[in-house]
From TrEMBL:
Pfam families: LON_substr_bdg. GO terms for biological process: proteolysis. Residues 11-203 form the Lon N-terminal domain. This is ATP-dependent protease. Keywords: Hydrolase, Protease. One of its GO terms (molecular function) is peptidase activity.
Amino acid sequence: MMQSADLPDMLAVFPLRQALVLPRSRLPLHIFEPRYLQMLEDALKTPHRLIGMVQPNPVPGDEDKLQMIGCAGRITQFSETEDGRYMVTLTGISRFRVKDEVHGFSPYRRYSVCWKGFQRDLGRSETDEHFDRPTFLDLLRRYLVAQNMSSDWGELQDADDELLVNSLSIILPFEPEERQALLEAPCLKTRRETLVTLIEFALRGGTNEETLQ
């Protein structure tokens, strides 16, 4: 478990659309672009082995703009393929706020970051005492059927609150703005409520009609 003092003031940033990592969750990545292969090699040389995952937020006139909040993932597993690509697993450590871009000779983007306000991310797994699991799993079952998605239902039922909510936030096919809302949720309860809202919205076909029964 990392401490606040271990967190760097600057991070290599991987601006990847749709990718989401959350504290204490895992994100598999397939890295093959030369600049991000260099980023991976450089990160492995640091004591913290952190990479900042941030979603792009392009606007007219600034296609390189990023979302203001990302999450740092620690490289916990990696393997190299015969053709020089890497299969990587990031384990989420803490969210951060994006500050100023650090310019230099690096082929990838680096930013100064602020960790203030996210101290909870470095603690133990969160619980959600108001989590109505049976109702939630019934809603999820209907969503997976509607999306023609399969699941390991036994594993979902056995997962603890945080693992269940965070894993679904990462793997379900939400839009980038929806993923950002899940990332920015201040606590597990809020993330679970946001997740339920997004699932209900998808079941309604993206309309504001009443929730399906």
